[in-house]
Amino acid sequence: MRFVDEFQNPILARKLLDEIAEMATVPMSFMEFCGGHTHAIMQFGIRQLLPSQVKLLSGPGCPVCVSSQADIDQAIALSNIPNVILTSFGDMIRVPGTTYTLQEASASGSDVRVVYSPLDAVQLAVENPGKEVIFLGVGFETTAPGVAASILEAARLGLNNYSVFSMHKYTPPAMKGILNGGEVRLSGVIGPGHVATIIGSDAWRFLPERHGMPVVVSGFESVDILLTVHELVHQVANGIATVENAYTRSVLPEGNLAALKIMNEVFEVSDADWRGFGVLPLSGMAIRAKYAHYDAKVRFSMPQVPSREPPGCRCGEVLRGIVEPPECPLFAKACTPDHPKGPCMVSDEGACSAYYLYGQSN
Length: 362
Known about the structure:
Layout: H1 10-23, E1 28-34, H2 35-44, H3 46-49, E2 54-61, H4 63-66, H5 69-79, E3 84-88, H6 102-107, E4 111-114, H7 118-127, E5 132-137, H8 144-157, E6 162-166, H9 172-181, E7 188-191, H10 193-199, H11 206-211, E8 215-217, H12 222-237, E9 243-245, H13 257-266, E10 267-274, E11 278-287, H14 296-299, H15 315-319, H16 343-346, H17 351-358
Parallel strand pairs: 1-2, 1-7, 3-4, 3-5, 5-6, 7-8, 8-9
Antiparallel strand pairs: 10-11
Helix pairs in contact: 1-12, 2-17, 7-8, 8-13
């Protein structure tokens, strides 16, 4: 299929929807891996526009949401260490730990600061030589190169007071975990556009090659997503399974080689604990021994804090596509954006946040 750069085109959208309805003669379920896609799909009302035979499921594409409870509790404990400035992107500040949040830790006297770039955290280390500055490295392949660059910059400057608590994760292992778990039946996958910008569309070839499942890497405009669903339906209807790139203006088959070089210079593959999944082998990014001086897990005695999931929260099942947010008994009742019980309601990429913001209907 030839993809075009036409956005918000009602004539093209209508044509695509008509063709999807014509091709979808059997039930089909597609998972949008990326939380950004979930929000776009809800915002544009795409679920409601698609024929009943085509179902979209949200996946684990929210890096804040998949951070394990234990990692969040350790991050909060790090903020309590004297002379530490803990820095983070904004979403993490309000994620509930077992007892409280980083926001509440800040209110109690911990020095917790929101930064817009990990290089801002490096600058804080320069300006505060008597403090230890820790950056919470949360994200997938999209943000990891920037965090790696901050470590390289700290090394270039010879800083002795900057470190990263890496919770970074690789995305393909989570998709493998969903398929191997067998809890949901999928016909295909909407590939994450931002992640694929870094790792490339070829990184998803394991889906058709090992699982016989089509994947289409998508952009984030409404017509991007409809084009993607159209191609997935076309592949399923015709017994095809291949990788298609519907986001060619940003994604190359091989990805961003410069970003990958920086990321791989600083990080090495490790196991990682995911909310809703447990420990997934070879899914995490650990800081290489070469840069151990900038690894918070090495520099500090990591506290072993008793952790438990928020009672009644089904965020883990939402992340695996087993349930939709309205099926959680806390959704829009005890759990709201103002009073979140779990990270899926906190993050701008969380499925619960999307359902609450744009409506609860499927």
